[in-house]
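Help needed: design a sequence for this.
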């Protein structure tokens, strides 16, 4: 029977401070400009003019912004702009699934990024006043988020995992894996750790690496390991290479383009981590507009979402050392996994924000 274990408390970085209240405004801030029309009254008994005055030409209507015009001084502090953004996001019924899970945290992320602040510092600066030029930049990114419905990470080319910034654009899925947190909570060598000593790990494979963020996080958790990272998309690997360069890991992380294990030969690893495509057909049909801006290749896992996962489970043993193991994220596909592999002793791991979306299996338990 599959087991579930709760992750130990971690210091998982969020895109906003934990003190930010996750609430949705219920009222829409859509003020309408009032116009008043005046009609000229005729004085009784006065003679009519012999000629009519030519009416003034009416200028063509100027297209109005979907946002009400903000008068100078109406929005002053970071908190004011976050509140305003939350109202606009709720009004537009945006979806939040890209590192932020609600309109408040996404608004704080965009406001802070525009002001070159780490989002964890929002509370520290919440009451600080914003300059007029900064305010215009903030309103512009809010406007783009609402009108384009692109993920916020694409608008600012940045996403955070465990407090670390990563470069992202439309070539890769926006990183939001739970594996990063689990590397800290279950691979630390402490009681309950799934490995004995992080410093003893010599090799790690990141399958379906995307932006390369998990490879970077693995390099920090396992300081003595060489790390290989594979993706089928050449475009995604260009983004991964940029992040590898940002963190100066060229000597430790090697990128491979190809289909899962094929470019690796018979190389074996102490640990394989993977956040593969796992969305099933119904899930693809239900994706919000924001997610449809991301590469479909990074999402679709076949009719039941397990096409790639089945292959990983079938081939992983040939690429693991005898004491190694596989850590794999499958989203909400546990029921399908349990039905397809009833005899596999999968250990399901939870995080602060997920339940049974990632499993662990030791090499010795793979068939």
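Sure. Designed sequence:
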């Amino acid at each position: 029977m599959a087991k579930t274990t709760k992750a130990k408390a971690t210091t998982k970085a969020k895109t906003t401070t934990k003190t930010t209240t996750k609430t949705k405004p219920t009222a829409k801030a859509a003020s309408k400009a009032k116009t008043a029309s005046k009609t000229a009254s005729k004085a009784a008994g006065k003679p009519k003019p012999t000629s009519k005055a030519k009416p003034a030409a009416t200028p063509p209507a100027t297209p109005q912004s979907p946002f009400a015009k903000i008068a100078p001084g109406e929005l002053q502090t970071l908190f004011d702009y976050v509140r305003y953004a939350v109202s606009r996001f709720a009004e537009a019924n945006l979806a939040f699934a890209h590192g932020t899970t609600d309109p408040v945290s996404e608004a704080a992320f965009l406001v802070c990024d525009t002001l070159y602040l780490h989002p964890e510092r929002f509370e520290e600066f919440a009451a600080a006043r914003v300059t007029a030029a900064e305010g215009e930049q903030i309103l512009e990114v809010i406007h783009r988020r609402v009108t384009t419905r692109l993920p916020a990470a694409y608008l600012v080319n940045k996403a955070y995992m465990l407090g670390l910034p990563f470069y992202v654009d439309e070539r890769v899925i926006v990183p939001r894996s739970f594996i990063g947190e689990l590397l800290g909570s279950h691979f630390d060598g402490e009681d309950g750790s799934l490995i004995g000593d992080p410093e003893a790990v010599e090799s790690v494979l990141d399958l379906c690496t995307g932006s390369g963020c998990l490879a970077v996080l693995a390099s920090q958790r396992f300081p003595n390991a060489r790390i290989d990272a594979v993706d089928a998309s050449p475009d995604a690997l260009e983004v991964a290479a940029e992040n590898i360069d940002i963190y100066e890991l060229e000597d430790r992380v090697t990128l491979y383009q190809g289909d899962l294990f094929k470019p690796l030969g018979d190389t074996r690893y102490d640990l394989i981590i993977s956040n593969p495509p796992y969305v099933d057909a119904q899930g693809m049909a239900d994706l919000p507009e924001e997610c449809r801006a991301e590469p479909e290749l990074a999402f679709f896992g076949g009719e039941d979402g397990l096409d790639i996962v089945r292959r990983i489970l079938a081939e992983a043993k040939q690429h693991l050392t005898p004491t190694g193991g596989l850590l794999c994220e499958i989203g909400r596909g546990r029921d399908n996994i349990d039905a397809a592999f009833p005899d596999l002793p999968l250990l399901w791991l939870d995080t602060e924000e997920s339940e049974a979306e990632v499993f662990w299996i030791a090499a010795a338990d793979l068939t």
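The longest strand covers residues 320-329.
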